[in-house]
Design brief:
- There is one protein chain.
- With 161 residues, the chain is mainly alpha-helical.
- The chain has a two-stranded antiparallel sheet.
- 67% of the residues lie in helices and 6% in strands.
- α3 (44-56) packs across α4, α3 (44-56) packs across α5 (77-89) and α4 crosses α5.
Length: 161
């Protein structure tokens, strides 16, 4: 396949392969009924907006503003609003009034979608647990620490854009 033995090439090759594997099992998830109707017709851009809301609301359970979403996605607030409207219609996200500013609107993941995310998380956790059986507990902990470090690096770069 690839001829390079450079360790960085091998890292991205292995990472790419494992990512593809996890994507492939998404079909298994879809066939098992874990993925509900709400994911079926989501476009790539809508999925990206959804992931942004999921990520941004980890620290803001009351929701986030359209401005925060548009900044995260690098699009205009009007484009973000249009995309969020579609996701609200699909019952993936909800708009709520800000508890401190009655003119402001907050966006967050719908309760219905939170339940779906729990099922998806459990599905992927089981697949990952099965894949990790070839590693010792110490290796799993080391791998997690490495992924956390890389994840932090990506977040730092993302925030400096």
């Amino acid at each position: 396949m690839w001829s390079s033995n450079d360790r960085y090439s091998r890292i991205w090759q292995r990472g790419f392969f494992l990512t593809d594997y996890l994507r492939d099992i998404t079909l298994e998830m879809k066939n098992s009924g874990v993925l509900k109707q709400m994911f079926k017709d989501m476009t790539f851009r809508q999925m990206k907006a959804f992931r942004a809301v999921v990520h941004l609301t980890e620290d803001s359970p009351d929701g986030i503003s359209l401005k925060e979403i548009s900044e995260k996605l690098g699009i205009s607030p009007a484009s973000a609003s249009e995309m969020i409207d579609v996701l609200v219609q699909k019952e993936v996200l909800v708009r709520t009034k800000d508890q401190y500013d009655r003119r402001a609107i907050r966006i967050k993941v719908s309760d219905k979608m939170k339940e779906e995310l729990k099922k998806i998380d459990a599905f992927y956790a089981e697949k990952t647990r099965d894949m990790m059986t070839v590693l010792s507990e110490e290796e799993v902990n080391s791998l997690l620490a490495i992924f956390d470090k890389l994840y932090g690096r990506v977040l730092d770069k993302d925030q400096t854009k």
